[in-house]
Amino acid sequence: MDNQQKKELQILATKIRMGIIEGTYHAKAGHPGGSLSAADVLAYLYGREMRIDAKNPKMDSRDRFVLSKGHAAPALYSALAYTGFFPSEDLKTLRHIGSYLQGHPNMNTVPGVDMSTGSLGQGISAACGMAKGAKYFGRDINVYTMLGDGEIEEGQVWEAMMFASQYKLDNLCVIIDVNGLQIDGACEDVMSAEPIDEKVAAFGFDKVVIDGNDLDEIETAFEKFHESAKPFAIIMKTVKGKGVSYMENAVGWHGKAPNTEEYEIAMAELNAKLAELEEA
């Protein structure tokens, strides 16, 4: 990735963060914290990594993405909007009655959404099924799924990993967003899943641990995924609320929308970041 490509992805990640704030503010509800932490990897996935076509969202040969932590829908919607799947203005209709952009992703209404998710722990199982199906039919399709570190407290996650290893799903990339916080507090206090890297390795995965808010490290992680002959896990340490000063590492922003004053502060910070990147 050259400097220009990196700059473009940084701009996309910043726009994704802006869309998250727009959506949750206008909805007066939603989950900004864990959406903001995932913005950089979503920028890389939709801006560089995945074989997709915004003009043909159901293209048979496309790679698939499953947002297993479905409450981070504002991040996925924003990534889709800013890569051309639907107008970014529609992000302001998040969770509104009659909007196609509801609180969790719906594959039947949202262009670019490959799986309806929201019940934690279940998305990775769907991703395993997609990866197995691609193998069965001899299709060159990669399947990516993102989980939260609170979500992996669900037992079904580990059953899915066992399945992925059993059936040698080297076309499956499991991304775990380790921002350290969940709805009830710090993950280490509620139900620690550490050591996550040792656990996924024990379940038959190749893995890498990275800074999930660093695009260079994200790029290296996906390169290693493509080199692996096993199911692959990217364990990314991130900052919950990344990009908005008062939301960073604050558990209260797991599932709360900004008020007008908070919205204006967040958008001012993100607009300043965007201007800095565009002028660089």
Which strand-content bin applies to the residues? Answer: 5-15%
Write down how many β-strands occur, each being a DSSP E stretch of 2 or more residues.
7
Order of helices and strands: HHHEHHEHEEEHHEHEH
Q: What sort of overall outline do the alpha carbons produce when their principal axes are compared?
A: globular
Distance between the termini: 17 Å
Largest beta-sheet details: 5 strands, parallel
Rg is 17 Å
- The overall pLDDT, averaged over residues, is 98
Molecular structure report:
The protein is of the alpha/beta class. 43% of the residues lie in helices and 12% in strands. It has ten helices and seven strands. It has helices spanning 3-27, 32-36, 39-49, 73-81, 123-136, 155-166, 187-191, 196-202, 215-227, 260-279; strands at residues 64-67, 143-148, 172-178, 181-182, 185-186, 206-211, 232-237. A five-stranded parallel beta sheet has the order 1-2-3-7-6, sandwiched between helices. Strands 4-5 form a two-stranded antiparallel sheet. Helix 9 links the parallel strand 6 and strand 7. Helix 1 runs antiparallel to helix 10, helix 3 (39-49) packs parallel to helix 4 and helix 3 crosses helix 9 (215-227). The chain is globular and about 50 Å long. It starts with a helix and ends with a helix. The relative contact order is 0.16.
